[in-house]
Design a protein that fits this description.
Layout (H helix, E strand, L loop, with lengths): L16 E13 L3 E7 L4 E7 L5 H9 L5 E10 L7 E12 L13 H6 L1 H4 L3 H22 L4 E2 L5 E2 L11 E4 L2 E5 L4 H11 L1 E9 L12 E10 L3 H22 L1 H6 L5 H4 L7 E3 H10 L12 H8 L6 E4 L12 E2 L2 E5 L1 E6 L4 E8 L4 H10 L8 H8 L5 E7 H9 L20
Parallel strand pairs: 3-5, 6-10, 12-13
Antiparallel strand pairs: 1-2, 1-4, 2-3, 4-5, 7-9, 8-9, 10-11, 11-18, 13-16, 14-15, 16-17, 17-18
The structure holds 4-amino-1,4-dioxobutan-2-aminium adenosine-5'-monophosphate and magnesium ion.
């Protein structure tokens, strides 16, 4: 008798007797037969039992088994070409560890509010399982990409004394009698890191008090942010391009079954190859004009604008040189057109909009001081950041990828809330 086996490893145990520990996902019977769908987190397998093959007691256990009861199933692994895993289990014995109460999530349809209220249970469903495994693959690919290129992981603090991405979306907390904010981005700290280590990245949760209920805004999301010394905007775009290609490739290689399970059309993902188109803000505005879309030159693109612009291309699109006025204080102005920032947004194809924001940073002390003033930010809180321009300032660039936005696109979902285990939205803090 073999010890416990995970369903994901079942192919290594063909014709052997194994023990599976898991939960009942679903069941059906046809008189003398029970078909039990057993899940153990790593996969789902069908266990089949014939009335005559086991004792009456064991057969009755199958009968009383409720959805999500925890069970230990023993049986022989046999090949079955029709089964999703290629195998099924000829059940010999079943132990019920806990008979579940009536499970609130039945195989029938439920509304998204109900499912989100039961997120702690909904995670068990095969679709949510697949999405979060793809998220894991994306995170792993992000880390491997930077780790394999000599980047040093530098963790940024969560409590911060200053704003990085504007003061309108700050979460304020009391910090022993003074004010602290939950970080909006690790970028400013990565700039310090880049001057110390050359190339660095951080990966962690970031917070924005987004007062909008959209399908692409969380109040707590995870961002991976590289920062590189002696890198200009073009180099930054090259890095972002290689990075996204690497991530998509890795998901296609390692999570093909999960993409299939969620019925993602992979043809658009297979087109994610070099080079990505690169257009300026002005060129992007021209696309909107050509399509007769009302747009005020100089303002930021809304989600529908981004959909139209990226709809012209079948690969991720790099849009650079937005008006400096609508961008963050730390961005370097383009010397050739000072009203534009040396920044870049990457828009995902298929209408998914911005997944990356970044660019070249202002490296001149006086200019940066002026910008902090223009943006009405408290200079004292940025003195440490200004030091980076006082002691060996160099051109440097970086960007941030929002993990949930990237996973939403890669999975082809229409709302980002399913790409994070426990989403935090303006109207959701539970469970
Ligand atoms: O464009 P953003 O605001 O850029 C920054 O924070 C820079 N400091 C990053 C850097 O250069 N190091 O945010 C970067 C990315 C966006 O492109 C988007 O993918 C994601 O973070 N993002 C959000 N994702 C989910 N919910 C939100 N509310 C998000 N806000 C930004
Ligand atoms: Mg942005």
């Amino acid at each position: 008798m073999k010890d416990r086996v995970y369903i994901s490893d079942i192919s290594k145990h063909a014709d052997q007797e194994v023990k599976i520990q898991g939960w009942l996902y679903n069941k059906r019977s046809s008189g003398k037969l029970w078909f039990l769908q057993v899940r153990d987190g790593s996969g789902i397998i069908q266990a089949v039992v014939f009335k005559g093959d086991v004792s009456e007691e064991i057969f009755q256990r199958c009968e009383k088994l409720t959805q999500e009861s925890s069970i230990v199933v023993t049986g022989k692994v046999s090949e079955d070409k029709r089964a999703p895993s290629g195998f099924e289990l000829q059940m010999k014995d079943i132990q019920i560890m806990h008979l579940a109460e009536e499970y609130p999530i039945s195989p029938k349809e439920h509304g998204s509010t109900f499912l989100m209220d039961h997120r702690h249970l909904w995670l068990r469903s095969s679709k949510q399982n697949a999405i979060l495994k793809i998220r894991h693959e994306v995170v792993r690919a992000c880390r491997e990409f930077f780790d394999s290129q000599g980047f040093v992981l530098i963790d940024a603090p969560i409590f911060t004394p200053n704003a990085c991405e504007g003061t309108t979306t700050l979460f304020e907390t009391d910090y022993f009698g003074s004010k602290a904010y939950l970080t909006q981005s690790g970028q400013l700290y990565m700039e310090a890191g880049a001057m110390a280590f050359g190339k660095v990245y951080c990966f962690g949760p970031t917070f924005r008090a987004e007062k909008s209920k959209t399908r692409r805004h969380l109040t707590e999301f995870w961002m991976i942010e590289p920062e590189v010394a002696f890198l200009d905007l073009d180099g930054d775009m090259d890095l972002a391009e290689d990075f996204i290609i690497y991530i998509v490739q890795r998901v296609l290689e390692n999570r093909r079954a999960e993409l299939e399970l969620i019925e993602r059309d992979i043809a658009p993902l297979q087109k994610v190859t070099k080079p990505f188109p690169r257009i300026s803000y002005d060129e992007a505005v021209a696309i909107l004009k050509k399509k007769n879309i009302e747009f005020e030159y100089g303002s930021d693109f809304g989600a529908p604008d981004e959909t139209v612009i990226s709809g012209e291309f079948d690969k991720p699109l790099l849009v650079h040189r937005y008006p400096a006025r609508i961008k963050a204080f730390y961005m370097k102005s383009d010397p050739e057109q000072p009203d534009k920032a040396l920044c870049v947004d990457m828009l995902a194809p298929e209408g998914y909009g911005e997944i990356i924001g970044g660019g070249q940073r202002e490296d001149d002390l006086e200019t940066l001081e002026k910008k902090i003033k223009e943006h009405d930010l408290p200079k004292e809180a940025f003195e440490w950041f200004l030091d980076l321009r006082r002691y060996g300032s160099v051109p440097h660039s970086g960007f941030g990828l929002g993990i949930e936005r990237a996973v939403t696109w890669i999975c082809g979902l229409n709302h980002l809330r399913e790409t994070i285990p426990f989403p935090r939205l303006m109207n959701r803090l539970n469970p």
